[in-house]
Fold this sequence. Notes:
- The protein is an alpha+beta fold.
- It contains 4 helices and 10 strands.
- It has one domain: 3-methyladenine DNA Glycosylase, Chain A.
Amino acid sequence: xxxxxxxxxxxxxxxxxxxxxxxxxxxxxxxxxxxxxxxxxxxxxxxxxxxxxxxxxxxxxxxxxxxxxxxxxxxxxxxxxxxxxxxxxxxxxxxxxxxxxxxxxxxxxxxxxxxxxxxxxxxxxxxxxxxxxxxxxxxxxxxxxxxxxxxxxxxxxxxxxxxxxxxxxxxxxxxxxxxxxxxxxxxxxxxxx
DNA sequence: GTAGGGATACACT
DNA sequence: GTGTATCCCTACT
Length: 193
């Protein structure tokens, strides 16, 4: 298992997004380690992308997206959920990839407790669910993803990848910037083609 | 299908 | 400062 280096993230979001599929998002909280294989992501292209939080330029909320690549952009939405993005590109350019779903790998009993759900497919099959399962929140805003306590590594798996439309947004929803592993049971939605 | 929840951004005073 | 429309969603019916 190799931790993804900063150079992995220092590329356009549309290149990083498909390459993140099959990698493993890892989280340490005290002695508790939880992790999951990334099976669904979406690319957001920054100030040129009407669906991006960076569309209207730099604000206090989206500041992390304008920072160096390989850090987490975490935000709170709909009154109860955190979502986690990976900052890509270069400093000053607000590109990011939203992590939308994981297949649980380590610490499954811990995730079941945090989620209050028994079925493994209910633990991290959505952007708000996976942050709850891995206990990711505001304290992880801007966190460096090349080291603990929140990091992404790679074990050589190269899953099949399909590209589809983005989900859950009104503006820019017709852009095919969602990438998913078609065979996974842990996707947030079925793949439409 | 729809209720729920709270932060954010921006238009106004 | 207040008002309010919106939001990269989930859990339940």
